Amino acid sequence: MVEAIVQTAPAKINLALHVTRRREDGYHDLESLIVFADIFDELEAVTAAEDSLTISGPFSRGLGAGPNNLVLKAIAAFRARWPELSPPGLNLHLTKNLPVAAGIGGGSADAAAALRILAGMAAEPVPVADLADLAARLGADVPACLLSRPLVARGVGEILSPLPDFPQLHVTLVNPGVAVATADVFRRLRAHDNYPLPALPEPLTRPAQLGLWLNETRNDLQPPAVKLVPEIGVLIEELAETPGCMLSRMSGSGATVFGLFGSEGQAHEAANHIRRQYPDYWAAAAAISGPAI
Prior knowledge:
Blueprint: E1 5-22, E2 28-48, E3 52-56, H1 70-81, E4 89-95, H2 107-121, H3 128-138, H4 142-147, E5 151-155, E6 159-162, E7 170-175, H5 182-187, H6 207-214, H7 222-228, H8 230-240, E8 245-250, E9 257-261, H9 264-277, E10 282-287
Parallel strand pairs: 3-4
Antiparallel strand pairs: 1-2, 2-4, 2-5, 5-6, 7-9, 7-10, 8-9
């Protein structure tokens, strides 16, 4: 019996996101503090004669399983770069637990999981720098999702600084079920040359340190996203009023909103509150994954 290889694709959360420069190529330089929650999609792979992808899970509806899916794009890109290290084909199954086009990684995390599967199957080590370069060509969030640990991302997402320390925290994630196109948010961005992130405390080990630092930061994509989807602003205010919430903010380009908490109980109670108030919304509580050991 062929053994399946499984990789998780954790939700990415931009705790802070500053847009610092519009580049000549039309893209933007960013600085972002990114963490990952222990709630995830799951990608399973079994060797086969050719590649195939099936998708299930609560957010599988409307998600194509053809060559434009980022999982298959990642597989194809890895195979083109390292044909001698790649299996002839993979039967892949993606369990889609995270909302699509939601600002929490989604397809990028799935693509990163595919790259980790192939790198793990390779008969010899795949150079980390080369794998990261390949990830960057698949999408701005894929390099960060490849690591799936607390880090600061700069440039267009390809310059990563993993954090050696990070406090134990919990998060409530809420999505109103409205997909937001990143390009639409950037088109409505008023300022393209905002100041960068302040220096992080060293060591960053206490929630209070992070809370004080976050008060000096923002998500520059939040105001234009709120204009596109007013529900985002309502959810930010709703989470801010829940007991124990250190910060409520939008992640990425939206529409997922997060509340940051010091305890697991507070995060779960906030999620339950949102479910009672907005039964059609997706809400989940999770721990934030710390640095790799």
